[in-house]
Amino acid sequence: MIAAATHQTPARPHPIAPPSDNLTRVNILWIEKQTEQWIRFGREVGEQIIDRRRRIVAFRPDSIFAFVRWAANDYGTVASRIDIVRAVASGEPFQTLSQVQPGGDILLSITGWPKVELVLHHIDAVETAGIDPCDAAPDHWRHVAHRMSAALAPRAYTSERHNAWLRRREIER
After folding, report:
1. Please, are residues 68 and 82 in contact by the beta-carbon 8 Å criterion?
2. Which of 53, 63, 75, 103 has its CA 20 to 30 A from that of 166?
3. Radius of gyration of the CA atoms of the chain, in A
């Protein structure tokens, strides 16, 4: 799998607090070459190891993360999907998403390995530009989803676009 090996968590997150903490939780399962799920990017604030195959990671409200799911059988890939999600605060509207509690603001949802691979390459390009993908403008991930659904190449996320987003965010606060 591309990108799975490139994800490195800088430090172990703290254990997850009780569900009343306003965090978004993602259930992750990893069965080598059968069902592989991982967080491609995002700032985890908590982690609970269930067993050697299952864990739950948590994200603070308004943080952005990418959740990748891949499954195969004896004949090859049967499902692949990537969702880029903004974690929501309590009382905020959200969309439901399998394995994500309570759900989130889905910025991008792509299925099919060739398209998922293109999104992973796009994420790599954002990182190559020196920008952490979880800091990129949420509208950029929506742009990527819309362009890909129209079979068009998404525009690159440049430092100029990122700086414009940061300035706009400051004004909105």
Report:
1. yes
2. 103
3. 16
Residues with Cβ within 8 Å of residue 3, at least 6 apart in sequence: 40, 68, 120, 123, 124
Q: Which residues pair with 80 in a beta bridge?
A: 70
Give pLDDT tens digits for 60-115.
Answer: 999 999 999 999 998 988 999 999 999 999 989 999 999 999 999 999 999 999 99
How is 67-91 classified by DSSP, letter by letter? EEEEEEETTEEEEEEEEEEE---TT
What span, in angstroms and rounded, lies between the C-alpha atoms of 54 and 89? Answer: 25
| Exposure class string for 83-122: b at 16+ Cβ within 10 A, else e | bbbbbbeeeeebeebeebebbbbbbbebeebebbbbbbeb
| Torsion over CA: 14, 132, 118, 86 (sign) | positive
For residues 123 and 101, give the distance between their C-alpha atoms in angstroms, rounded to a whole number. Answer: 24
What pTM did the predictor assign?
0.86
